[in-house]
Amino acid sequence: MGHLPAFGDLLLSLPAVLWAITFHEFCHGYAAYYLGDPTAARMGRLTLNPLAHLDPIGALMLLIFRFGWAKPVPVEPRHFRHPRRDLVIVSLAGSTGNLLTAVACGLIVRLLPGPFIAIPALGRFIVLMVLINLGLGIFNLIPVPPLDGSKLLYVFLPASWLRGFFWLERYGFFVLMVLLVLGVVQVIISPIIMTLFHLIL
Asked: Most CB atoms closer than 10 Å: which of 57, 99, 100, 177?
């Protein structure tokens, strides 16, 4: 995961990246809508159109380094009946969608291995689908804003810690970039991604 992918991999990665990002955000929006928050639907984000969810930098990161992010779906917890519980469900929904996609790809390969063995490009595509969806799902669980994992912190942190959390939220993107440049994120999540990858395929 530390080297740049070949041109062929980049081409095969494009549809995988678009699906991973789109389904991730759609799952957030649908979970919020199901729990009573219509904000994502009103803003046109309850859709499988990739253009509605694309964050250029996050998509590029996902395309090249196999982990990244999308444009966050807006959520208004005041619409929820149980705000703390429902915010956790919505926060986990995106990564759950990605993990389910990866598992579904693995099941397809196990049930119908023939085409993926006979057509190398198809086999490589399914590998990239699994890797990219795992990358997006696991990466977004890191508890640094603006990633989904930070919303879980917001729910579970004691009130006395929230001031520090709100500071982190203001500078979270820069903290995240520093952690990526230093390789801290890669060291933490790469073993998790590869373990799940080998279990699925």
From this structure: 99
